[in-house]
């Protein structure tokens, strides 16, 4: 038998490198009213109003409940998107750009603007808001 330079139990153990993981982004930005779950309550109440409005959808009160429920539940999502976007946590430029575009289209609709002006103005406002929000996210990130 030949000589062994090392015994079996004395093998050199090299540590296995850890797999590369992306850097942690940290926690989501907290709301100024942090201990109070205001966003969650807003969405919950909005959903409750939506259900109540669907039950009473045939009268004017039910339609008002539907609109209020949609608005209240949407505000909860909008708040989260705004905080995450401007804190540099996640980009929400596309979602946030829709808000001024829809508001512009709504104002023009109720002002009885010509039919072609409403979508064109909405598209222009959407494009401008998207470009500005995208730049704001890149600066903050």
Written account of the structure:
The chain starts with 37 loop residues before the first helix and ends with a helix. It folds into two domains: 38-87; 91-141, no CATH class. It is built from four helices and no strands. The chain has helices spanning 38-55, 60-86, 93-110, 117-140. The radius of gyration is 27 Å and the shape is flat. Residues 19-24 have low confidence and may be disordered. The chain is mostly helical and 141 residues long. Helix 3 (93-110) runs antiparallel to helix 4 (117-140).
Largest sheet geometry: none
Distance between the termini: 66 Å
Helix content: 55-70%
How many helices in DSSP terms? 4
Structural class: mainly alpha
Descriptive labels:
single chain; 2 domains; 141 residues; mainly alpha; 62% helix
Structure summarized in a few sentences:
The protein is mainly alpha-helical and 141 residues long.
């Amino acid at each position: 038998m030949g000589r062994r330079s090392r015994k079996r139990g004395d093998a050199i153990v090299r540590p296995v490198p850890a797999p590369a993981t992306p850097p942690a982004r940290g926690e989501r930005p907290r709301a100024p009213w942090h201990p109070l779950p205001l966003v969650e309550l807003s969405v919950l109440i909005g959903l409750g109003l939506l259900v109540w409005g669907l039950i009473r959808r045939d009268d004017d009160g039910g339609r008002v409940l539907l609109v209020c429920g949609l608005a209240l539940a949407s505000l909860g999502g909008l708040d989260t998107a705004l905080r995450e976007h401007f804190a540099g946590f996640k980009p929400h430029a596309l979602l946030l750009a829709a808000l001024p575009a829809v508001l512009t289209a709504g104002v023009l609709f109720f002002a009885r603007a010509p039919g072609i002006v409403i979508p064109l103005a909405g598209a222009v406002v959407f494009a401008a808001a998207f470009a500005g929000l995208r730049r704001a996210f890149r600066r903050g990130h």
